[in-house]
Amino acid sequence: MHLNKSLASDAQLYEILRRELGRQRNKLEMIASENFVSEAILEAGASVFTNKYAEGYPDRRYYGGCEYADEIEAITQARAKKLFGAEHVNVQPHCGSSANMAAYFSVLNPGDAILGMDLAHGGHLTHGASASFSGKLFKCHFYGVAKDTELIDYNQVAQVAEAVKPKLIVAGGSSYPRIIDFQKFRQIADRCKAVLMVDMAHFAGLVAAGLYPSPVPAAEIVTTTTHKTLRGPRGGLIFCRKYLAKSVDDQVFPGVQGGPLMHIIAAKAAALGEALEADFIDYQRQVLKNAKRLATNLTDAGFRLVSGGTDTHLLLIDLKPSGITGHTAQVALDKAGITANKNTVPFEKERYSVASGLRLGTPALTSRGMLEPDIDQVSEFIIEALRNTEDDARLRKIGLRVEEFTKKFPLYADLL
Ligand SMILES: *Cc1c(COP(=O)(O)O)cnc(C)c1O
Question: What's the CA gap between 405 and 178, in Å, rounded?
C-alpha cells in the first residue's frame, strides 16, 4: 500500500507505525468514540491535498491554485447537506471541539450564559466544563439525569433554563446511552428564547442511517465530529440554518482556525460518500444490535448498566456494585487485549482519574465485521477480565485468546 516504501526509509517512524497497526489488529477496540475508516478514507487523508493552503471558502480564497480544493470542498459540503438534510454546512473544523468553539462564537459573546449537560452525567468538556475554553469564556449552567431513571430530566432542564435564561442550550453528550428528545429541548429553548445547539458527535452515524432522530429540524445549530459513528477521518462539521451561515463561516475562519486541512476535507468527502451508500444503514443497524447484545450479556452476568441498557452504540457500566473502579477495569481490560475507557457515572463520587464507570462501544468491532455471536465471545472476554482484575496471569491469557480471535476479522490486510 502507499505508505509502505517511503516510510521504510525512516526506520524509527516505520517501527512505531507498524506496532500501532499491530495493536489495532490484535486487540478489541471498544472505545465508543473510535472506529476504523476504510482504506479509501485513509488514502484521501494521506493525499497531496496536505500540501495546499486554501484559507477562505470555495470561490472566495485568499490563495491561488485553489481550483481543485474548491471542487473537493464543494463536494464535501453537498454530500454533508444531502446526508443530513441541512440548509448550510461548514466542513472545515479540525475537530469536534473547534466546531463547538466556532458554533458558540457564531451566536454568543464572552460572558453569555449557556446551559449544557453536566460532564459527570454524560456531557462533553466543551459543553461548559471549567477545564475547557467553554467554561472559561461563558457563564455555564448544567442539567443532568434524574437519579431514579438516569434519563435526562427534562423538567429540571426547563427549570434551570427558566432560572438562568441561557442564550444557548446544548444537547448531546459523550456517555449518554439513550435517545435524546430534541423536540422537548426545542420547546424549552423557545420558552426562554435560547438558541438550541445539538452536538451529535457520538451518534451522527446513527442519525445519518435514520436510526436515531435527526436533530437538524429542531436545532438552529448542529455540530458533530466525523470520526466516531460516522466513520470518517478525525474532524468536525457544523450544520446551521441559512440565517446563521455567514456567522458560522466567519467564526470557523478567520475566527477560530487558519487554513483548512484540505486532505482531511477530502477524506470527509470519502466518508460522506460511503455514508450515503445503502450498506451504511446495514452497518449502523449492526452497531445497534451488537450494543444491545453486549448490554444483555453484561446484565445477565450481574453488571449494572447506567439507565439499565442502551438505545445507541454505547453503554456505561456502573462498577460500584461490582466493587472495582473504572480505572481498575480499564487497566485490567488493557492487559486482556480489550481497549476501553473509564468514565464517570451520574452522581459520581470518585475523582475523574479514578471514576466509577466503564464506557464500551460497538462501532469499531462492527466495522471489523463482528455480529452478535462474536459479541457473545467478546462479552465472555470482558466478563472474565472484570471478574479477575488482580490476576495478571489470567488477564494475559485472555489477551492471547483475544489476539487469536481477532485473526478472524482482518484489518487493513494490504497495509505495511
Ligand atoms: C468527541 C466529542 C467532541 C470533541 O471532539 P474532538 O474531535 O475530540 O475535539 C465534542 N462533543 C462531543 C459530544 C463529543 O463526544
Answer: 30
Residue with the three cell numbers 466525523: 226
Cα of 124 to ligand 1 centre, how many Å?
Answer: 7
Report the relative pairing of strands 113-117 and 139-143 from DSSP bridges.
parallel
pLDDT tens-digit series, residues 4-57: 667 778 889 999 999 999 999 999 999 999 999 999 999 999 999 999 999 999
End-to-end CA distance of the chain: 7
The pTM is what? 0.97
Q: Which of the four pLDDT bands, split at 50, 70 and 90, describes residue 2?
A: low
Q: How far is the CA of 266 from the centre of ligand 1 (A)?
A: 20
228 is catalytic: yes
Task: Identify the pLDDT of residue 5.
Answer: 66
Is 63 annotated in the active site? no
* Topology of the domain comprising 43-275: Aspartate Aminotransferase; domain 2 (3.40.640)
Percent of the chain with pLDDT over 90: 96
**Domain 279-406: CATH class, spelled out:** alpha beta
Write the residue with the smallest CA distance to atom 8 of ligand 1.
Answer: 96
172 lines ligand 1 (CB under 6 A): yes
Give the integer Cα–Cα distance in Å for 164 and 266: 42
Active site residue 27: no
Domain with CATH 3.90.1150.10 in the chain: 279-406
Domain with CATH 3.40.640.10 in the chain: 43-275
